[in-house]
Amino acid sequence: MLKIEDLHVAVGNKDGGGSEILKGLSLEVPKGEVHAIMGPNGSGKSTLSYTIAGRDGYEATSGDVLLDGQSVLDLDPDERAAKGLFLSFQHPMEIPGVQTMNFIRTALNAQRKARGEGEVSAADFIRLIREKAKLVGLDDAKLKRQFNVGFSGGEKKRMEMLQMAMFEPHFAIMDETDSGLDIDALKMVGAVVNELRGPDRGFLVITHYQRLLDYIKPDAVHVLAGGRIVKSGGPELAVELEKSGYDQFIEAA
C-alpha cells in the first residue's frame, strides 16, 4: 500500500538546498495494517508526514513515496487527497468566515468528483455528518460554527477525526493527533481508527507516547531517529520505549 524508498528530504528550499531532515528513510505499510512511528523531538516525524501529504517547502531530494505502486511526489496535495491520502494535523488550523459543514461538504464532494464519483446530496450529507459527529463527541452547535474558530485544542482534534470519519481515506497519516488530549479524547481517537480499519485501508500513526497505542493496537512499531528508521518491532516495542526512552536510538542514529 504505502512504500517509502530511501527517502531524503530537505526542508526550507525548493531547490533542495535546505537542511536535510530525512536521510534515507525506508518503510512499508501493507494494506489493512496500522503502523506506528515513535521517536524523539527533531527526528523527522512531522517532516515525513508533510512530505507524504505534499506540503510546500518539504522537498524530496531523492527516493520515492509510492501509494499502491504509484509515486505521489509529483502530485499536488489535492491530487494526493483525491487518491485517498489524509493527514491529521498536530495543530489544526482555524478558517474564519467558513462554516464547518460547508467546508467539509465541499471538500468531500471535491474528492468524489476527482475520483469520478457523484456528489453527496445535502440530505445524505447532513445525516452522515450528524452520525459521525456523535462518534467523535461534537454536537450540532459545533457543526454550525466557523471552522475551528473558538474551538479548544481538544475540540479541534475531534474535528480532525470527524473529517477522517467523513472522508474514509484510503491511507491516513496521523501526526501526533494525541498531543494534548485527555483520556476520553484518546478513547475517541481509538474508536474512530478502529471503526475505519479494514483490509483495503492503512494507517501511519505518529506519536511520542505509548498511551495512544493502548486504544489503537498497531501491527508494527518503528523508531525514527536521525532521519532514519533505526528499529522496528511489534506493539511491545512501544512499551519498551515508554520504559527506556530514546537515548539508545539517538546514539545509534
UniProtKB/TrEMBL annotation:
<protein>
    <submittedName>
        <fullName>Fe-S cluster assembly ATPase SufC</fullName>
    </submittedName>
</protein>
<comment type="similarity">
    <text>Belongs to the ABC transporter superfamily. Ycf16 family.</text>
</comment>
<dbReference type="GO" id="GO:0016887">
    <property type="term" value="F:ATP hydrolysis activity"/>
</dbReference>
<dbReference type="InterPro" id="IPR017871">
    <property type="entry name" value="ABC_transporter-like_CS"/>
</dbReference>
<dbReference type="InterPro" id="IPR027417">
    <property type="entry name" value="P-loop_NTPase"/>
</dbReference>
<dbReference type="InterPro" id="IPR003439">
    <property type="entry name" value="ABC_transporter-like_ATP-bd"/>
</dbReference>
<dbReference type="InterPro" id="IPR010230">
    <property type="entry name" value="FeS-cluster_ATPase_SufC"/>
</dbReference>
<dbReference type="InterPro" id="IPR003593">
    <property type="entry name" value="AAA+_ATPase"/>
</dbReference>
<dbReference type="Pfam" id="PF00005">
    <property type="entry name" value="ABC_tran"/>
</dbReference>
<dbReference type="GO" id="GO:0005524">
    <property type="term" value="F:ATP binding"/>
</dbReference>
<keyword id="KW-0067">ATP-binding</keyword>
<feature type="domain" description="ABC transporter">
    <location>
        <begin position="2"/>
        <end position="251"/>
    </location>
</feature>
<keyword id="KW-0547">Nucleotide-binding</keyword>
